[in-house]
Amino acid sequence: MEIKKVLVCVDLTPLSLKALEWGKDIAEKYGAELVVYHELEDVYTMIKTSASFGMPASPDLKEKAEKNALDKLKPLLKDVQTECRFLIEAKGKTADRLVEVVKEESPDLTVITVDYERTVTKLSSQVLVIK
Q: Which CATH architecture has domain 5-130?
């Protein structure tokens, strides 16, 4: 089996950080690109709620949340021995967006936690579920 790209869905829970370790180890073993996907669900919700009340959200809300997520994730991957890329967005709920992200990224392996196993519809890649 050839693995060129591993996508890991991380929501910063302890279990998802365990998934990140698995994804990192597999990507290093195969010399694959590691894509770390994190959805800013709370930021998406705040932006949508603000818009529904006719009030703009803080203009730097998304940027601050992205930086905060990167500040938490980068130290966990400081010693990664393969190409690593972060995909941090605020476009919806993780369970909804993950299917689209997998289609766009076309990973050979997607690593998710058991939390998403039942809520995410069929993904177009091999899936490793971390419990």
A: 3-Layer(aba) Sandwich (3.40)
